[in-house]
Write a structure and sequence with these properties.
- With 212 residues, the chain is mainly alpha-helical.
- It folds into two domains: 144 residues, no CATH class; 37 residues, no CATH class.
- Helices cover 42% and strands 8% of the residues.
- It is built from seven helices and four strands; from the N terminus they run βαβαααββααα.
- The strands form two sheets. The protein has a two-stranded antiparallel sheet with strand order 1-2. The chain has a two-stranded antiparallel ribbon with strand order 3-4.
Length: 212
């Protein structure tokens, strides 16, 4: 490492799968009764690691789905080395480095040791995010758009944490919600709207009633 780190109308149907349903499983949350669950064993094969990572998130999803009013009190143990590894491989290889100058290739050269160290920092509470590097991109009108570039390790941790949080909050969204959700976009929302032929008329009528 270069630096010592130390939501609507029932006729609008989503084409993407709606929120999953499943059996309750054990998870550390307040006022939640424990049920049978299985975390699986660690695997060395990357494909098996992916399956292990997905299984861990599925336990979180099921707990959130079955106990809507419960509150999670311990999630950090889900930020595993396998999840950090998956987050790293999901990053862009040629992305600009942050303030520490760390590149994807440099981190990959000693990947397992770097992941072990990063995981230990996160679990022990020693992890601290670095300042974001400020970059300006010229705009067509002559102005500049500010861009914040996080350090590579911060990107890895952020993505891993987002995966865990998504497993919880995705269970609270309805099927016709599209904004800022993983695997969904404005194009999916438009596709759903195009299938509801009467919806634009209802919008127009509502607008007239409120204006006049």
């Amino acid at each position: 490492m270069m630096n010592g780190r130390e939501k609507s109308d029932s006729a609008i149907v989503a084409k993407k799968p709606a929120n999953n349903a499943g059996e309750p499983v054990a998870e550390r949350v307040e006022r939640r009764a424990g049920t049978k669950g299985n975390t699986g064993q660690s695997n060395t094969c990357r494909a098996q690691n992916r399956e292990s990572v997905s299984h861990g998130l599925e336990r979180v999803r099921q707990a959130a789905r079955q106990r809507k009013k419960g509150r999670f009190t311990a999630l950090l143990h889900h930020v595993t080395i396998d999840r950090l590894r998956e987050s790293f491989h999901a990053l862009k290889r040629n992305a600009a480095p942050g303030v520490d100058g760390m590149t994807w290739r440099y981190f990959e050269a000693n990947l397992e040791d770097n992941l072990q160290r990063l995981h230990a920092q996160v679990q022990s509470g020693a992890y601290r995010a670095l300042p974001v590097r400020r970059q300006y991109i010229p705009k067509p009108d002559g102005k500049q758009r500010p861009l914040g570039i996080a350090a590579l390790e911060d990107k890895v941790v952020q993505r891993a944490v987002v995966e865990v949080l998504n497993a919880i909050y995705e269970e609270d969204f309805l099927g016709f919600s599209y904004g800022f959700r993983p695997g969904r976009s404005q194009h999916d929302a438009m596709d759903a709207l195009s299938g509801a032929s009467y919806f634009p008329c209802k919008i127009w009528r509502f607008d007239r009633e409120n204006r006049y």
